[in-house]
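Sequence in, structure out. Go.
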Amino acid sequence: MTTTHLLAHMSTAEIARIDTSDAVIVQPIGAIEQHGAHLPVMTDALTAERISDLAISGLPEGSNVWQLPTISYGKSTEHLGRAGTVAMSAATLTGVCMDLGRSLAASGFRKLVFVNGHGGQPSLLDVVARDIRVETGLEVFPMMPGRLGLPDGVEPVDPDYGIHGGQIETSIVWALAPELVQMEHAVRDGEVAGSLFAGMKHLSLEGTVPTAWVTDDLSASGVLGDPTAASLELGRRIVDHQVTGLREVLLEIRGFAFPPVGLDQEARPAASGALA
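Output:
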């Protein structure tokens, strides 16, 4: 019997023996997009995959949490035109995620977690998660490790505009894959994103009333933040915080179930491929 948590490394016979009643399938999803001159274009895919792997690897034996191969491409249309960006449309990524949900349901699984590393697609994943739920009956949980907050005492130097390739993201990649970080090319950019909405009551970059933006609206280098303030030690602290948080999330998801309320099953509208 295999001891791996990597589902794609297992045989179909081994997968068939998994107890699907509370099994949790983790789907890391990222993006291939520019992150300035100092970070790799695989930054979002890398962080989603590595954080997922570290979290699941540290779970107690028998936790019944399994990791799928990373969906590396994402909805990165805001970065199109910058060298190395490879983007899916919203329709394409939605279709990929829907097919994933259908396939997992057909294998008998009931819980799916999208661990997202790309800030440009939480809204899309929220929508597709509910569509998968409606069509297949899967319980679906889209989450982003970066939204688990920062370790106590950590205050970013670029809180108003550090959303892409800045201090926090650069520190994380430095901790996960230092060989891919080129700090000699790190530059601060995108401060306009912090000052543009100064004094406005409602409008913001990504707040209560968000503004649709593309990189060329805000940055010459492609960076939105201050990567020059990044450090390896900071990255290690943030990674540990996110990994610990994700472990807690996954165990909560494994133990979660909707109560039998609402319409009786016989009275529910039929959904194509829905689980019993």
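Check: The chain is about 35% helix and 5% strand. Residues 16-252 form a domain with the Rossmann fold fold (CATH 3.40.50.10310).
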